[in-house]
Amino acid sequence: MNATRNRIGTAIGFVLILVWCLLPVVWIISLSFKSAAETGVGSPQFLPKDPTLQNYRDILTDNDFLDALRNSFGIALIATFLSVILATLAAYAIARLEFRGKRAVLSLALAIAMFPVVSLVGPLFDMWRTLHLFNTWPGLIIPYMSFTLPLAIWTLSAFFREIPWEMEQAAQVDGATSWQAFRKVIVPLAAPGVFTAAILTFFFAWNEFVLAISLTSTTRSRTVPAQMSFFVGPDPFNPPYGQLATASVVVTVPIIIIVLLFQRKIVAGLTSGAVKG
Amino acid sequence: MAAIDMKNIVKQYGDGFPAVNDISIDVADGEFMILVGPSGCGKSTLLRMIVGLEDITSGDMMIGDKRVNDLAPRDRNLAMVFQNYALYPHLTVYENIAFPLRLAKESDDEVDKKVRAASKTLELDEHLDRKPGNLSGGQRQRVAMGRAIVREADAFLFDEPLSNLDAKLRGQMRTEISRLQKRLGITTVYVTHDQTEAMTLGDRVAVLKRGVLQQLATPRELYENPGNLFVAGFIGSPPMNFLPATVEGTSVKLPFGSVQISPEKAAKAEGRGLLMAGIRPEYFEDASVKTDPTGGSTFRAEVDTVEWLGNETYAYIPFEAPPEVEEQLRQLERDLDGESLRTQLVVSLDGASRIQEGEEAEIWVDGSKIHLFDPATGENLTVDRDNAGRILDHATEQAAEQQAEQDAVAG
After folding, report:
1. Is B43 in the same domain as B191?
2. What are the domain boundaries of chain A?
3. Are B73 and A173 a contacting pair at CB < 8 A?
């Protein structure tokens, strides 16, 4: 009796959460299939009356958007890659070594993570102009890395701490150098942590807007979130909702695919079985 | 294969605490050496210094004819089994065993041949494709051993390998390790806190206390001729009984009565005042069961508790000890990681004994096997030095201290 009531309650809860999370997504997808005429009539219905692929055709032939998409991918991937590598090495040092200023490094990293991004836009703009980094890929990659590194370091050092030190010592006794022990034993064991850090970093870089709009001026380095703010259409009072929604769908799909891909890798409890059981 | 020679090894931590203090142990080629002692005695630290996971503060660590103090673990060619096995969870059993070979860049054929041979020895054939996480404790233990035997290491090092197994499996693995070591004939250093493992596995046993080597001898020598109170109390289960004693002529006066000892032993203990007598539980017997009660003494005592185990019976007889003996016993208990309970005599009697709890019984004791200890220093006064291996005793300790002082002055 109680068990069934529990199950029903759980089911209702699930449905509520699903509706809460997915309704906006469904709304965007539905919008992306509506023609401009349909979105402009004031009270559009939920489902498109006359589904059309015109928005997708327009978007995928829009060179500005394609450039932005390319920029987004390039910048996000490079920032993720570099950030994860640096964070892995830093986190390993923090987890394993005793050195002066270890706490300072960790607190400083946390302080950077708490720093409001907007307050850095002005100084960065000036600096980047002088250093000729304005409107370039590195101009975005560098700040993205510095904002994602703290989180990545914290996540990864927690993972490294969980790995028994004996693993590494066993590898060294088995004939591995420190680097081999790190690469062949520690990194594979920390893989879930590395992927978690990678996903978080990628999300940040992919979705970031404030820096992307302030530190770029052309489609040479402008990313999708910034580019989308230029979708104004001919009538300022009547934004092209259909096209905006389509662009959103196009940029959300890679994220979903990446999450699904990495999710398989994030196997919890990989270290179970390493030690006594 | 190689001998391992530790010469005056010292490990001092940053705060100056010597975890291992001037230990010299020579492990012969092919010998099975046990390092045993209560927790915190430095045995694991010593093992980790042999393998190179711990820096050596001073002294020489020789493997074969090579001084290895400054070599990295991978250059020492030793194989080690860790207490928690330290298997690589992301690799299959096969790859776990193959790991050292892969690092040595051996060809796939060679790797396959050696891994199969090792897995056959350890009966792991059917588990080769599984991950360590899906194995039982005993199987993981075997995989860890497989990883050790697969390469031609100079020596095996074991760090309490059986402490995570249940009692039955521990017994089986113990014989397994012993058989394997005999068959491979490889130099082995084995760390344990379990005196049963120490007695059954070792060719020789090194007993350590707080970083100092107490006695280095064969199991039989340790059992029959413990060098001091600590070794006497540590080796043997149930542990040796310690009773206040005074020697008058050739008789030892114990709380329960007098026991005759040999004139040689009596001479060694002459005029020392209050001593501690060490008598193993198995040197006692129920006088009514003993068919041939000659050569010993009997006394009457009230038995407090009786534990009948079938093949034998443990009887407990409480006694009052003078304060100086009691203090020493309490200290000994602390050294042995035990709780200091009341002073009582444990006697191991034949299973046929009919002694009841609360009854006054006549107990026979073999006086020839009594040891007499100095309560102040813990030194065994009646030890047979020819059959006791190497002992740390008061004299050598003082000599070492004097030497250290001289060195300090000279330096």
Report:
1. yes
2. 63-265
3. yes
Contact in structure between B313 and B353 (CB atoms under 8 Å): yes
Q: How many CA atoms lie within 13 A of B26 on its CB side?
A: 5
Q: Which residues of A touch B (CB under 8 A)?
A: 164, 166-167, 169-177, 180, 184-185, 188-189, 191, 270-277
**Residue contact A166–B140, C-beta within 8 A:** no
- pLDDT of B288 > 70? The answer is yes
Point out the residues of chain A with pLDDT beneath 70: 1, 42-44, 263-277
Q: Do B89 and A277 touch (CB under 8 A)?
A: no
User: Residue B72 corresponds to which amino acid?
Assistant: A
Question: DSSP secondary structure string, B206-228?
Answer: EEEETTEEEEEE-HHHHHHS-SB
Lowest mean pLDDT among A194-198, B71-75, B105-109, B130-134: A194-198
Q: Are B239 and B316 in contact (CB under 8 A)?
A: no
Of B83, B89, B137, the CB nearest to A189: B89
Total residue length of chain B: 411
How far, rounded to the nearest angstrom, does the alpha carbon of residue B267 sit from its chain's CA centroid? 30
Q: Which two tokens stand for residue A91?
A: 């986190």
Q: Give B310 to chain A, closest Cα distance, Å.
A: 34
Are B192 and B314 members of one domain? no
Q: What is the residue range of B267's domain?
A: 229-383
> Are B131 and A273 inside 8 Å of each other by CB?
yes
- pLDDT tier, B398 (very low <50, low <70, confident <90, very high otherwise): low
- Report the distance separating Cα B375 and Cα B378, nearest Å: 5
Considering the domain A63-265 in this protein, what is its CATH number?
A: 1.10.3720.10
Cα–Cα distance measured from residue A220 to residue B43, given in angstroms and rounded to the nearest whole number: 65
**A169/B84 CB distance under 8 A:** no
Query: ipTM value of the model?
Result: 0.79
Please tell me the distance from the alpha carbon of residue B379 to that of residue B232, in angstroms, as a whole number: 10
Classify residue B402: in a domain, yes or no: no
Question: Residues of chain B with pLDDT > 90: what percent?
Answer: 35
pLDDT one-digit tens code per residue, B178-223: 998 998 899 999 999 888 899 999 999 999 998 899 999 999 999 9
Distance CA B302, CA B195 (A): 31
Q: Are residues B213 and B88 in the same domain?
A: yes
Would you state the pLDDT for residue B130? 92
- Chain A residues near residue B164 by CB distance under 8 angstroms: 276
Q: How many domains does chain B have?
A: 2
Name chain B contacts of A170, Cβ cutoff 8 Å. 80, 82, 86, 88, 147
Q: Do B103 and A176 touch (CB under 8 A)?
A: yes
CB contact under 8 A, B74 and A176: yes
Write the CATH number for B101: 3.40.50.300
Cα–Cα distance measured from residue B192 to residue B234, given in angstroms and rounded to the nearest whole number: 12
Q: What is the CATH number of the domain that holds B352?
A: 2.40.50.140
Residues of A in contact with B72 (CB under 8 A): 172, 177
Residue-by-residue DSSP string for B350-378 = ETT--PPTT-EEEEEE-GGG-EEE-TTT-
State yes or no: cis peptide before B238, omega within 30 of 0: yes
pTM for this model (two decimals):
0.78
